[in-house]
Design brief:
401 residues, 9 helices, GspL_cyto_dom, T2SS_protein-GspL, General secretion pathway protein GspL
């Protein structure tokens, strides 16, 4: 299995735009990385594989808003409420921006809202969809989540320092004066730096940094529960539900904490397969033993039969030949059927009798359904069955399985 993680370009997307991407088998390690057009992006493969679009940190702004009571995250009024709450904080017209609220947002409580250019995000997602790589989720490259931390990204000449945590996201140019503007972070807050910025970062921050390449940062961002595809970018509630199911399935298939459950499920499936095959083998062996017994009975009773093709049919044929040779009657003979008819009809007189070679048809007896039904047990003891077709009584050998 391999999932595809795609960084959306900052410029408006088109057929010629290039997307940086990462292929990962488990959502944590990098299997391949490159930059190419949407049409040439590799396809994810395997159960639980997904396409995750990553919105660059530079493309997003973050705003705090208090949702009024009675406005739920799934409410149709949520966007208009957000427009009213954030209109004074936005540089662009509210009709030109896209909103996305944090996971597990609750009415009557403050929530984080991600804001970006609506046309930019729609065009980028449409470019992926047109290339056959529709995004299952859209996650921010950096989000105001707990625990917080620092990220140093970019080229040495234009490096950026990103601080994020429960209090928001702050982007600053990497310079000596930037450190004084950083929010208070815990002493153990991680500090990640791209390899080219490691020495510069340690010198300015006076603390050790953890090397993290851009692809590794994108994989870390994909672990977030954020999904920016909301409102008009989420086509339906069912689409959102399918995205959540796909995301959960991907987490179950890749996350380290689910490894014991995956092993347990695999062992359970393997045990069931072994059990089913063992049971099937036993049933085949019993069936074969019964078939061998039937063949042996045929060859013992009729030694002249050398080749057994269909034992029941061949035994019926040999019995018929034996009865014919000895003059014995069978349940199909006219004499047998007439004897049964005499016991069933009593003193009634039939208007017509027709014998077809296997069954007897008698008309005019005037028997009722109840009389025929009461006679069935005695008839079955002789291997026969009777039924009424209108005024015609039909007596025939009982069908054998």
């Amino acid at each position: 299995m391999s999932s595809l993680y795609v960084l959306l370009p900052l410029e408006p997307a088109s057929a010629h735009s290039e997307f940086a991407y990462v292929l990962s088998p488990d959502g944590r390690s990098v299997a391949a990385q490159a930059t190419t057009t949407a049409a040439l992006l590799p396809a994810p493969s395997g159960a639980g594989a997904e396409v995750v679009a990553i919105a660059p940190a530079h493309a997003l702004s973050w705003h705090r808003a208090d949702l009024p009571r009675g406005v739920q995250p799934a409410s149709a009024r949520l966007r208009s409420v957000l427009e009213g709450l954030l209109e004074d904080q936005l540089l662009d017209d509210v009709d030109q921006v896209h909103f996305a609220v944090q996971p597990d947002a609750r009415a009557g409580a403050p929530v984080w809202v991600a804001v970006c250019q609506r046309t930019w995000l729609r065009n980028a997602l449409q470019a992926l969809e047109s290339a056959g790589r529709p995004a299952n989720r859209v996650v921010p490259e950096v989000a105001p989540e707990t625990p917080g931390g620092l990220h140093l990204i970019g080229e040495p000449e234009q490096a950026q320092l990103i601080a994020h945590g429960p209090e928001g996201v702050l982007m600053l140019p990497l310079s000596p004066g930037a450190t004084s503007l950083l929010p208070a972070l815990p002493e153990d807050a991680p500090c990640f730096a791209e390899p080219a910025l490691a020495a510069q970062a340690e010198q300015l921050l006076q603390r050790p940094v953890v090397l993290q390449s851009a692809p590794q940062r994108w994989l870390q961002a994909a672990q977030s529960r954020w999904d920016l595809a909301q409102f008009e970018l989420a086509s339906s509630g069912r689409t959102r539900a399918m995205k959540k199911v796909s995301s959960l399935l991907g987490e179950v298939l890749r996350a380290r904490q689910w490894r014991p459950a995956r092993w347990g499920a695999a062992l359970l499936v393997l045990a069931n397969l072994v059990g089913v095959n063992a049971w099937a083998w036993r049933e085949r062996a019993l069936l074969q033993a019964k078939q061998d017994e039937v063949r042996a009975t045929l060859t013992r009773t009729f030694p002249q039969v050398r080749v057994v093709v269909d034992a029941p049919v061949q035994m019926e044929r040999e019995l018929a030949s034996l009865r014919q040779a000895t003059g014995a009657s069978s349940d199909r003979d006219l004499e047998t059927l007439l004897t049964v008819l005499a016991g069933l009809s009593g003193e009634r007189t039939a208007s017509s009798i027709d014998y077809t070679g296997t069954e007897l048809r008698v008309a005019g007896l005037g028997l009722t359904e109840a009389q025929v039904r009461d006679a069935q047990p005695a008839l079955r003891s002789q291997g026969l069955v009777a039924q009424l077709n209108g005024d015609v009584l039909v007596i025939a050998p009982e069908a054998r399985p």
